[in-house]
Specification:
Elements (H helix, E strand, L loop, with lengths): L1 H10 L2 E6 L2 E6 L4 E5 L3 H9 L8 E3 L5 E3 L2 E3 L5 H14 L3 E3 L7 H15 L7 E6 L7 H12 L4 E6 L6 H13 L3 E7 L3 H10 L6 E5 L7 H8 L4 E5 L8 H6 L2 H10 L3 H11 L3 E2 L6 H8 L8 H8 L11
Parallel strand pairs: 6-7, 7-8, 8-9, 9-10, 10-11, 11-12, 12-13
Antiparallel strand pairs: 1-2, 2-3, 4-5
Helix pairs in contact: 3-4, 3-12, 10-11
This protein binds NADP nicotinamide-adenine-dinucleotide phosphate.
NADP nicotinamide-adenine-dinucleotide phosphate (NAP) binds next to α12.
Length: 324
C-alpha cells in the first residue's frame, strides 16, 4: 500500500473508478493500479490533504498560511486563557482560537504579548482567530474594532461569524470591510451548513477561508467538508477531542482509539488529533493544563496507517456531543 500511495503522491492527479470490491486508480501516466475498496478513503485523503506537515501549516484560499493545530480557549477564564496561550506558544503552537462570547480575549492578548517577549516570537508568526457573537451582528463594524481593542492587536488573522442568526449577511459584509481596511486578514464561518453557506455566498465577495464546525470521529462533517472544498475553504474542528462533557471520555476510551494509541506508544488524545490532521482538518484542542497542551502538540513524530485511518473513519455515526 505504501508503494501505491507513493506513486499517487508523485503523479499528483489520478481518476478514481470504483467497481465491486476493487478500486481502479487510473494514473495520469496511463497506467492503472488496483486497490481494495476499503482503502479508498485513506487514499483520497492522502491525495487531497493540502496540509504541509513540515511547516505545520496550510495555505488558505487567499494565500495566507494557517497553522494546522492550535489552542482552543472555550470555557477558560481570562487568567486561564492567558496561561494557556502562553504555554501553547511556549511549546510551539502558533494558532489561537478565541471568541467574543468566551469573554477571555483580553487574557488571550496578554498571553500573546508575554510569549512574544519571553520567547522572541514575532506577531506575524502567530495566527489569532476570534468570532463575532450573534447579538452583535447588527453592529458588526463596531464589534470588529472591539475585538482588536480587547485582544490588543493591530489585526486579526481570522474572524468568524459564530453562528447563523439575524443580520448574519450584514455581519459578513462588515467583516469584508474589515479585510479591505486591513483590520482582518481572513474571514470565515462557524456552525454553518450547506444551505446557509450557499445563502451567504450569494452576498459574499470574499469566499470564507475557514469553516469551524463540531467535528470528531462520531461526527466527521464529510458532506459539508466536500461542499466547502469547492471554494477552497478549509474545515476546522471544534470539539476535536469530543468536548468537555461526555464526549472526550467516549472517544478517548473507545477501543479503536486506545488500541491504535497503544500501537504507536501515544495517548488517545494524540491519536484523535493526528487523525484530524491526516483528514486535512485543522484542530484546536482546548486545555488549561500545560502538560496536556504540550502533549497535544507532540503529534508530528508518528503517522496513522491507512488501515488505522479507516478504522477511525468507520466510527462515524452522525452523533454530536454539543447541545446546540
Ligand atoms: N465555534 C464554536 O461554536 C465552538 C464551540 C466549541 C468550541 N470551540 C473552540 O474549539 C476549541 C476546542 O473545543 P473544546 O475545548 O470545547 O473541546 P475539546 O478540545 O474537544 O476538549 C477539551 C477537553 O479536552 C481536555 N484535554 C485537552 N488535551 C488533553 C490531553 N492531552 N489529555 C487529557 N485531556 C485533554 C481538556 O481538559 P484540560 O483543560 O484538563 O486539558 C478539556 O476538558 C474550544 O476551546 C474553542 O476554542 C468553538
Amino acid at each position: 500500500m505504501k508503494k501505491v500511495l507513493a506513486s499517487i503522491a508523485l503523479l499528483c492527479t489520478a481518476c478514481l473508478n470504483v467497481q465491486c470490491q476493487k478500486t481502479e486508480i487510473h494514473m495520469n501516466d496511463g497506467t492503472t493500479v488496483e486497490i481494495p475498496v476499503e482503502d479508498i478513503d485513506s487514499i483520497t485523503f492522502s491525495m487531497t490533504n493540502p496540509f504541509n506537515f513540515e511547516t505545520r501549516t496550510v495555505k488558505l484560499n487567499n494565500g495566507y498560511e494557517m497553522p494546522i493545530i492550535g489552542i482552543g480557549t472555550f470555557y477558560l477564564s481570562t487568567a486561564q486563557a492567558e496561561e494557556s496561550v502562553y504555554n501553547a506558544l511556549k511549546v510551539g503552537m502558533r494558532l489561537i482560537d478565541t471568541a467574543d462570547i468566551y469573554g477571555n480575549e483580553v487574557g488571550v492578548g496578554r498571553g500573546i504579548r508575554r510569549a512574544m517577549q519571553d520567547f522572541g516570537i514575532k506577531r506575524e508568526e502567530i495566527f489569532v482567530t476570534s468570532k463575532l457573537w450573534t447579538s452583535s451582528f447588527n453592529n458588526a463594524d463596531y464589534e470588529v474594532d472591539e475585538r482588536l481593542e480587547r485582544l490588543g492587536l493591530d489585526y486579526i488573522d481570522l474572524l468568524l461569524l459564530h453562528h447563523t442568526a439575524a443580520y448574519d449577511e450584514e455581519a459578513y459584509q462588515a467583516m469584508e470591510r474589515g479585510v479591505r481596511d486591513g483590520k482582518i486578514r481572513s474571514i470565515g464561518l462557524s456552525n454553518f451548513y450547506e444551505e446557509d453557506i450557499d445563502r451567504m455566498m450569494k452576498i459574499a465577495t470574499i469566499k470564507p477561508a475557514v469553516l469551524q464546525n463540531e467535528t470528531h470521529p462520531y461526527h466527521q462533517s464529510r458532506s459539508v467538508k466536500a461542499h466547502i472544498a469547492k471554494m477552497g475553504t478549509i474545515l476546522e474542528a471544534w470539539f476535536p477531542l469530543g468536548g468537555r462533557g461526555t464526549g472526550i471520555k467516549t472517544l478517548s476510551e473507545h477501543e479503536v482509539i486506545t488500541s491504535i494509541a497503544l500501537a504507536h506508544n501515544k495517548s488517545a488524545y494524540q491519536v484523535l488529533l493526528r487523525w484530524h490532521l491526516q483528514c486535512g482538518t485543522i484542530a484546536i484542542p482546548g486545555s488549561s493544563n500545560a502538560a496536556h497542551i504540550a502533549e497535544d502538540y507532540d503529534i508530528f513524530d508518528f503517522e496513522l496507517t491507512p488501515d488505522e485511518m479507516n478504522r477511525i473513519n468507520a466510527l462515524e455515526c452522525n452523533h454530536r456531543f454539543a447541545s446546540y
